[in-house]
């Protein structure tokens, strides 16, 4: 950790020395709703947050959500191959199931695996992403140990015009994609409609050769892993003169992805994400705002197999299906006690349901959560307090809380400290998976994983410069592990301790837009050595060091940019026997507005053709190119 502290000191000194101008401060302080469930500026959240706008997405030219998020403070991702293949996201060194993902306020994710399939979310349908790092169970309930990611789909504007949009992309591995949309609105109504699709012939995800295949994906399949996606979204709303607002959102993304497999697990998956939500907000009294939300998300997956296996040919046949459904409702009340004090109280209800070809011992459960939050400003001091009680049909009652304090100095300097508790609910696989030939495969007596997190940080947004440093520690009790000596039955035994430091530094100098991120973390298993053979090891697939730098510049109608990302080594397994080497990649991009409404974009990813792995024995894309034609006129 000495290197961590040294890096933090250098980052602070370097950024403070150049902070001098305040002209662009407002552009660096956007409004965010995920951190507190209320609209506050980033500077008032008392949390570590990152906001990605539509302008950022078009500037960075990502091909997937993972491409967009990788390397942001505290965030690393893994993927078993190319586009559309299974992925995981680890925030602040916690498990992939410890990050809550929302789309337009609706919780998504499989109730069997316990995490959201971000690889299935089309990046062209995204308007904005808010990332909040640190525990948020006191506001959102289960699963928000590492943080919360909220994705907002494309929406219309209130400028009184109609705006069409169109993009077409071609690239390596036979990639072709397109998107078309129409949006508009006025001072009362808004709407947005989008349709899109994508195809790539892909490449073999699993490394070939009998020895390598059996060490990684356990089959030897040399086919290219093709990926197809069809998607659409709709967003509409109306706001009356008295401030009452009714809004509707909808997203559907259907994917067909090939992978190395067998007649038992399939080699082709048809996956679908469906999200729909409706929101009504109004004010019964001047100081009292009410928001009602209802939503449903579905995570649908069906697997098939076709091909030869051990000399025999199998025709196309279904091998299984897992369909998750979440029905959600919330009632939130925001009460303005004074001009500088806000009280928020509310109730959340969620029903989880599973329909599967595998006969689970239970297929549904309910959860009801009640919460309260206080936000107050007293001069230069800010205080945020929150508590929540959850009652779950399976694991009973659970209480969480959080407390944050911040102080604003002159020249945009702010310090903050926070402490919070959180928990992760066991998944349906953990609790209900049926016995295998009479041998138990699940544990209905599992307790939720519980965490305690503390954080201190300092940030400054001063003119053309912005910087921040935060240090944190998270302890997780009752960590759920799989026992290899008992048919991999999950059980509560271990403890994890994660220490980390995050830094970011950005500037806009003479047209050059520069943003750098640094993450140093120590995610370790610290369980009792008598019960946990992996005590003292690093948690799987989480590098201790990550860095990313984005640099962009416009020259009139032309734009250029680059992203450099580096990650240290990690291990693929809890025993720390399969080492994944450190690596770095460089992406180059350019754009040209050849008319007012038309733009062409080009990107070269992994420009030096680095060979690396984020999952043991699974390939990652080598040098790849992408070319996009985009039509985005002003409102007419």
Automatic annotation (TrEMBL):
The keyword Cell division does not apply. It is a multi-pass membrane protein. It is found in: Cell outer membrane. InterPro entries: B12_transptr_BtuB, Beta-barrel_TonB, Beta-barrel_TonB_sf, Plug_dom, Plug_dom_sf, TonB-dep_rcpt-like. Gene3D superfamilies: TonB-dependent receptor, beta-barrel domain (2.40.170.20), TonB-dependent receptor, plug domain (2.170.130.10). Residues 1-19 form the signal peptide. Residues 42-148 form the TonB-dependent receptor plug domain. PANTHER family: COLICIN I RECEPTOR-RELATED, TONB-DEPENDENT OUTER MEMBRANE RECEPTOR. This is TonB-dependent vitamin B12 receptor. The gene is btuB.
């Amino acid at each position: 950790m000495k290197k961590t502290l040294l890096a933090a000191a250098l980052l602070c000194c370097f950024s403070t020395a150049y902070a001098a101008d305040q002209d662009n401060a407002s552009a660096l302080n956007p409004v965010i709703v995920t951190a507190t469930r209320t609209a506050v500026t980033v500077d008032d959240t008392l949390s570590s947050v990152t906001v990605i706008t539509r302008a950022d997405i078009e500037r960075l030219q990502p091909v997937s959500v993972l491409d967009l998020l990788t390397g942001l403070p505290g965030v690393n991702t893994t993927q078993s191959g190319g586009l559309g293949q299974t992925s995981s996201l680890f925030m602040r060194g916690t498990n992939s199931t410890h990050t809550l993902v929302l789309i337009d306020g609706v919780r998504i994710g499989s109730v069997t695996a316990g995490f959201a399939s971000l690889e299935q979310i089309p990046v062209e349908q995204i308007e904005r992403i808010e990332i909040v790092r640190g525990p948020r169970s006191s506001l959102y309930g289960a699963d928000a140990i590492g943080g919360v990611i909220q994705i907002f789909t494309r929406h219309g504007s209130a400028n009184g015009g109609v705006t069409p949009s169109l993009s077409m992309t071609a690239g390596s591995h036979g990639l072709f994609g397109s998107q078309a949309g129409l949006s508009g609105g006025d001072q009362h109504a808004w709407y947005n409609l989008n349709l899109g699709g994508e195809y790539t012939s892909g490449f073999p995800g699993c490394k070939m050769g009998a020895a390598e295949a059996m060490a990684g994906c356990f089959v030897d399949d040399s086919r290219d892993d093709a990926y197809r996606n069809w998607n659409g979204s709709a967003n509409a709303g109306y706001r009356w003169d008295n401030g009452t607002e009714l809004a509707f959102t909808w997203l559907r993304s259907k994917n067909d992805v090939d992978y190395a497999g067998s007649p038992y697990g399939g080699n082709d998956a048809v996956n679908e994400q469906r999200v729909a939500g409706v929101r009504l907000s109004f004010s019964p009294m001047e100081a009292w705002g009410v928001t009602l939300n209802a939503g449903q998300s579905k995570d649908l997956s069906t697997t098939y197999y076709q091909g030869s296996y051990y000399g025999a040919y199998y025709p196309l046949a279904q091998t299984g299906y897992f369909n998750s459904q979440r029905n959600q409702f919330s009632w939130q009340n925001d009460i303005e006690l004074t001009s500088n004090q806000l009280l928020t109280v509310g109730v959340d209800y969620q029903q989880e349901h599973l329909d599967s070809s595998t006969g689970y011992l239970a297929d549904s459960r309910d959860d009801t959560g009640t919460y309260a939050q206080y936000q107050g400003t007293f001069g230069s001091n800010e205080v945020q307090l929150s508590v929540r009680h959850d009652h779950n049909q399976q694991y009973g009652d659970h209480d969480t809380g959080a407390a944050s304090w911040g102080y604003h100095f002159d020249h945009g300097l702010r310090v903050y400290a926070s402490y919070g508790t959180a928990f992760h609910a066991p998944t349906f696989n953990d609790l209900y998976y049926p016995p295998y030939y009479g041998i138990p495969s699940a544990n209905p007596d599992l307790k939720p994983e519980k965490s305690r997190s503390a954080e201190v940080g300092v940030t400054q947004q001063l003119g053309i410069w912005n910087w921040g440093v935060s240090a944190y520690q998270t302890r997780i009790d009752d960590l759920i592990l799989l026992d290899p000596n008992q048919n991999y039955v999950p059980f509560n035994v271990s403890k994890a301790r994660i220490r980390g430091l995050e830094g970011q530094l950005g500037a806009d100098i003479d047209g050059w837009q520069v943003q750098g991120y640094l993450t140093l973390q120590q995610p370790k298993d610290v369980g009792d050595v008598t019960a946990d053979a992996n005590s003292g090891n690093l948690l799987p697939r989480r590098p201790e060091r990550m860095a990313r730098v984005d640099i962009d510049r416009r020259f009139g109608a032309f734009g250029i940019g680059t992203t450099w990302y580096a990650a240290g080594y990690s291990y693929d397994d809890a025993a720390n026997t399969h080492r994944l080497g450190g690596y770095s990649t460089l992406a180059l991009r350019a754009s040209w507005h050849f008319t007012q409404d038309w733009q062409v974009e080009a990107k070269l990813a992994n420009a030096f053709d680095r060979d690396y792995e984020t999952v043991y024995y699974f390939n990652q894309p080598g040098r790849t190119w992408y070319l996009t034609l985009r039509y985005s006129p002003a409102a007419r």
